[in-house]
Amino acid sequence: MEYNTKRFNTTREFVCHQTEQKIMNKNYGSPSRNFSYFTKLLNAHFDTQFSPADGATIMLLLKVSRLKFDPSNLDTHIDIAGYSACLAETKGLKHDDTI
């Protein structure tokens, strides 16, 4: 990933832009569908009862754990933002459900 100072004024802008590119422009389908399938696999393998939101949380925690060993990896920060957005969607939160 290349940081383009002419297009982005801050790292924050870059992370948000890259996150949007990753989660909106790939043909993975909806987070609810994907995490539903992911947790079906987990539940069958481990005899558990994870929900799709639990699956998104697991992936989010995996990315957070990677920060311990490589805190400067910008791609990990982008993935965390993406999984956080997917988690909100799998929980059924709506953009108009503001505080």
Low-confidence stretches: none
CA-based gyration radius: 15 Å
Major beta sheet, specifics? none
What fraction strand? under 5%
Helix content: 55-70%
> What order do the helices and strands follow?
HHHH
Number of helices: 4
- From the spread of the alpha carbons, the general shape counts as globular
* Count of DSSP strands: 0
Could you tell me how far the N terminus lies from the C terminus, measured between alpha carbons in angstroms? 34 Å
Query: Which structural class should the secondary elements be placed in?
Result: mainly alpha
Mean pLDDT score: 89
Structure overview:
By secondary structure, the protein is mainly α. Helix content is 66%, strand content 0%. It has four helices and no strands. The longest helix has 18 residues, at 52-69. The protein is globular. The termini are far apart. The model has no long low-confidence stretch (mean pLDDT 89).
In short:
This protein has four helices and no strands.
Task: Give the tags.
99 residues; mainly alpha; 4 helices
Describe the secondary structure blueprint for this structure.
Layout: H1 11-24, H2 31-46, H3 52-69, H4 74-90
